[in-house]
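Tokens for chain A. Residues wanted.
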């Protein structure tokens, strides 16, 4: 039995998680300077794109996401699932002719905006509720279909006259959600939940024409992610599980997505499986004045730079997308006190009582010992220090192969895996951790990085020494 009515209270829990899920949904939707003509806005949508099977074969993008996590459901519990994604709507711009017809044009210039062709993203969701007991064995499969849609919107000038129209078309998409569960051996009743979201659309590239990502996007599920909630029971953290469950967590397979606990801190009945690496119970910074859609959301810099755009640049941004227009209006209307809050925030303070300071070489902590003594830096020399990696000392000038990702600290580390790099310095922080500052071989900006001291940093267990030579 599969239904689409959530259990009481589930919608409220999902609403809390959607604050972060919306940031996943629109991550990179439109980037600063928020104009369609900007080079960075010509290659759209980088996260969670599930392409049609005929186009994804042999390419970097895929037609499915596979999530596995552990849960401890109570008796008669149900699992509520919400698949969320964007459906691309291809927009063309047409100018009105005196005879009542329409001409498709590259742009339509108005006093307040410049309208251009663009792919808008329409929010879609697929919801279902399944009793947990029905997930055992073969589980359930829930197919879904989004029909093709077409509409037009008149464009009026400041005098209220129709000067053009926007024509939008979205293509048909077929997909499915497959849910199953298997009971594991262990001290407690624990199930391994598997959730697979697939694009099953039958679209194929036109014959005689090379496959084109831009042509495949209207048939794709974009920024796909999952919200899952138990009516009774809890999920286990995949990043910090209890000791008895670590082996079972390590055996879980997560492909093109990663599940974390969502909702209020301390709760365990809600999971967000996201194509972007997150920590448990992610939250939007309370200082954030609104969505800026641009990668790591450095709100202060983006707000200042957006406010500094020329009037012509703002006109083009307003005509690019309604969400881009909202960013322009936000930057132009942001009060000084709101902007000031973006400059920095203290998330928490630790009360220090009793003896303070760090232990000395004899293990004795002295009240008058500062937490860090600048004079201790005199014993380190970043240009001549070495650190043993494997059985070899590594220092400045040595070449290494990068093997990041052990800590999942930066999604961009995926692009550096296997690259050769040159060690520029061996650094020690105040906690005694060693870091290797490196420049990537072949990086055209390596000289600038050396001049400015802006390196990439890795720990010794994230590199492998290479033999000397080019």
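Reply:
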């Amino acid at each position: 039995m599969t239904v689409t009515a959530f259990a009481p209270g589930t919608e409220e829990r999902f609403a809390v998680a959607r604050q972060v899920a919306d940031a996943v949904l629109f991550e990179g939707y439109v980037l600063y300077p928020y104009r369609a003509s900007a080079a960075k806005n010509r290659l759209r949508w980088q996260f969670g794109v599930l392409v049609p099977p005929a186009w994804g074969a042999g390419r970097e993008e895929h037609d499915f996401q596979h999530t596995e996590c552990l849960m401890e459901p109570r008796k008669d519990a149900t699992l509520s699932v919400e698949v969320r994604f964007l459906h691309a709507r291809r927009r063309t711009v047409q100018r009105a002719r005196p005879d009542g017809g329409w001409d498709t044009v590259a742009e339509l210039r108005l006093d307040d905006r410049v309208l251009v062709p663009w792919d808008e993203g329409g929010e879609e969701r697929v919801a279902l509720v399944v009793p947990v007991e029905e997930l055992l064995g073969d589980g359930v499969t829930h197919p879904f279909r989004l029909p093709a849609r077409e509409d037009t919107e008149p464009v009026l000038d400041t005098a209220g006259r129709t000067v053009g129209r926007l024509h939008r078309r979205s293509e048909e998409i077929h997909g499915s959600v497959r849910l199953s569960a298997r009971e594991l051996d262990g001290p407690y009743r624990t199930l391994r939940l598997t959730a697979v979201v697939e694009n099953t659309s039958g679209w194929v590239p036109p014959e005689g024409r090379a496959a084109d990502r831009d042509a495949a996007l209207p048939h794709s599920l974009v920024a796909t992610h999952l919200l899952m909630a138990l009516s009774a029971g809890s999920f286990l953290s995949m990043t910090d599980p209890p000791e008895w469950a670590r082996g079972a967590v390590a055996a879980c397979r997560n492909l093109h997505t990663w599940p974390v606990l969502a909702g209020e801190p301390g709760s365990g009945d809600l999971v967000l499986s996201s194509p972007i690496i997150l920590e448990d119970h992610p939250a939007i910074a309370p200082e954030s004045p609104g969505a800026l859609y641009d990668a790591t959301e450095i709100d202060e810099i983006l707000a200042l730079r957006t406010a500094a755009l020329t009037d012509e640049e703002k006109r083009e941004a307003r005509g690019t997308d309604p969400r881009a227009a909202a960013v322009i209006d936000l930057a132009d209307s942001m009060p000084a006190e709101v902007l000031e809050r973006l400059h920095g925030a203290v998330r928490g303070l630790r009360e220090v009582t009793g003896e303070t300071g760090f232990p000395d070489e004899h293990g004795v902590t002295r009240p008058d010992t500062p937490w860090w003594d600048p004079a201790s830096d005199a014993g380190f020399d970043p240009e001549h220090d070495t650190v043993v990696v494997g059985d070899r000392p590594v220092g400045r000038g040595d070449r290494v192969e990068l093997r990041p990702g052990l800590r999942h600290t930066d999604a961009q580390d995926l692009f550096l895996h296997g690259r050769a790099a040159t060690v520029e310095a061996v650094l020690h922080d105040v906690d005694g951790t060693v870091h290797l500052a490196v420049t990537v071989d072949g990086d055209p900006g390596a000289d600038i990085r050396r001049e400015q001291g802006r390196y990439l940093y890795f720990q010794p267990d994230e590199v492998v020494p290479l033999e000397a030579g080019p």
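The chain has ten helices and 22 strands. The longest strand covers residues 78-96.
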